[in-house]
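Protocol step 4 of 6: structure prediction from sequence.
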Amino acid sequence: MVSIYDLDLTLIRVNSFKHWVIFTLILLPFNLFTFLPILILYCHRCSGLVGRFEFKKRLTTIQSESKYWSIAGFIFSRYLCLFTNKGVLKHLDQPGINIIASAAPDIYGKCLPFLDKFDHVLFSNLSDGYYIELLGDAKKVAVINDMKKNNITLSWLRFYTDSLEDLPLARIVNELYVVYTKEAVFESFKNELADIKVSLLK
């Protein structure tokens, strides 16, 4: 059995990137090398000149070249542990292969202390100058490619998520756990995925 886990509002009970944006703003004055470009980027985002994806891409690009932000990412990953969903973490002890696939940037995602419970780790990242955000179809493709690369058979797949944005991946699994979400989202998953078992996990 292969179990696939989302991070935000699933393994942890918060949207990690929203917290990272605030965390970055707090630490920004202490790093002169990235202060101006990040400040300008924040201003552009607040004024609507930059969209969500472009903001995330540019912020990740700036921070990936700085040891300061790598250290900040490590510290931030420990902060996120304050919000772990222990009910979901217990499922990691089940036999089989565990995969985490998240749209969270790898600058802090790859530092999470509970990653030792996972056999494969997939986060949004920069690759050859391109920003790959694991959201929607991109997450499904990343998971399938990783499984093929590691000779993991697409037999029985179980998926844990909170978001309808993960529907593309949810459509190819055998069992879905909808975690810590609104009743309307749970019902939407059930309506969209009538042929598989959909359970609510809080």
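Step 5 (inspection) to follow. The chain is about 45% helix and 20% strand.
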